[in-house]
Design goal:
203 residues; mainly alpha; 7 helices; elongated
Length: 203
């Protein structure tokens, strides 16, 4: 058990460092691309030519979505950076979810019935968080139907939470729905509070 925890913590640490370095590099690239697109640096400079040749094709999917939403080409690099940050957060969250649940299950098995009750309550909230993450990932794949058996369960579990939030939180830019992000953190906070209460009651 101790060895598994150490390996898991090492994997999380490595992924966090890799993501941080990648985010910093991509942040610089996106800043340079933004400067080139907004003509704050000469469009005939080597940097601008490099951005048009190498970076802009990679941002083409983001650009199409931004333009369809009424955005401007100059904002595309910033949205690209935001997409990278969100993807990194999702990846780290998935790793933490899988590893955390494995550790919690092992402790529950060794801790007896009370520990099992606490684990089941915590797992229920963890599944809700996972459903929200799966729904966000599914929204990035236009060809994936909400009725697909792969993601239908996530929509069924998350919709009762997201529907009220959507009525309270308007989309950014008219089409970018941030309610799943808010819902994720709300579920996480409420889950921590409820699990704490159950743990105190059980012990």
């Amino acid at each position: 058990m101790a060895t598994f925890v150490q390996i898991y913590q090492l994997v999380i640490l490595v992924v966090q460092r890799v993501f941080l370095v990648a985010a910093l590099v991509l942040g610089v690239v996106c800043l340079l691309d933004w400067l080139a697109r907004t003509r704050r640096i000469s469009p005939f400079s080597g940097i601008s030519r490099f951005m048009r040749r190498s970076v802009d094709p990679l941002l083409a999917p983001v650009e199409r979505r931004v333009l369809r939403s009424g955005g401007t080409p100059g904002s595309v690099p910033l949205w690209g950076l935001l997409a990278v940050v969100v993807a990194g957060i999702v990846l780290l969250s998935l790793l933490q979810f899988v590893g955390g649940q494995a550790i919690a299950l092992a402790r529950a098995v060794n801790g007896g019935p009370r520990a099992t009750v606490v684990f089941l309550v915590a797992a229920a909230f963890a599944v809700l968080q996972l459903a929200i993450m799966v729904r966000v990932l599914a929204s990035w794949i236009p060809s994936l139907s909400p009725w697909s058996p792969w993601v239908r369960w996530a929509f069924a579990l998350s919709e009762p939470i997201l529907a009220p939030l959507r009525r309270l939180i308007p989309p950014i830019g008219g089409s970018i729905d941030i309610s799943p992000i808010v819902a994720y953190f709300v579920v996480r906070l409420v889950g921590s509070f409820v699990v704490g209460l159950v743990a105190r009651a059980a012990y």
